[in-house]
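stage 2 :: seqdesign
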């Protein structure tokens, strides 16, 4: 498939616009300073390997980053590995379901035609379960043991896993703060 910036990929294949505050999140995730900061926003550059995006509820963080950005990264590099962590494994698995839907549902056929292997992502996957995706061997480099996407709850083991990106989404709630 073609190499596109996230917002263009998202518009073309996921049929979703990326708004200015979402562009800022992607800028930070991709190592750039965020564009068009409002005077009420604060950006504190720090360690590039650890990013905290603190945004009020209902600004589409989960859909933009945890689902759509992960789909984008997998399409750009099928050997990319992501761990999704949420307060419970059930919520993390819900995010994974959103990713799998975009990779396999007929509503996203243009994405699949452009990026999926012959036969489709699901049909050629080594694992396609409620908690993980492991693409088929020809999609991954070097026979990696770690899943392309794994969904886990807080307190689950991460040590010993290899990931290019770990997303903690809705891990802190009123119950566990």
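stage 2 :: out
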């Amino acid at each position: 498939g073609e190499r596109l910036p996230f917002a263009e990929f998202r518009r073309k294949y996921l049929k979703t616009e990326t708004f200015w505050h979402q562009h800022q999140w992607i800028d930070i995730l991709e190592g750039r300073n965020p564009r068009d900061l409002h005077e009420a926003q604060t950006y504190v550059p720090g360690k590039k390997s650890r990013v905290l995006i603190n945004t009020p509820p209902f600004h589409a963080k989960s859909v933009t980053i945890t689902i759509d950005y992960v789909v984008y990264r997998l399409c750009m590099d099928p050997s990319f590995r992501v761990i999704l962590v949420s307060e419970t494994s059930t919520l993390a698995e819900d995010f994974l379901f959103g990713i799998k839907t975009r990779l396999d549902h007929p509503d996203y056929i243009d994405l699949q035609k452009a990026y999926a292997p012959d036969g489709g992502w699901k049909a050629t996957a080594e694992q396609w379960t409620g908690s993980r995706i492991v693409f088929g061997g020809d999609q991954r480099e070097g026979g990696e043991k770690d899943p392309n996407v794994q969904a886990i709850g807080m307190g689950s083991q991460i040590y010993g896993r290899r990931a290019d990106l770990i997303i903690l989404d809705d891990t802190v709630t009123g119950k566990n703060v």
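stage 3 :: structure notes
- Residues 61-76 form the longest helix (16 residues).
- The CA atoms of residues 13 and 110 lie 6 Å apart.
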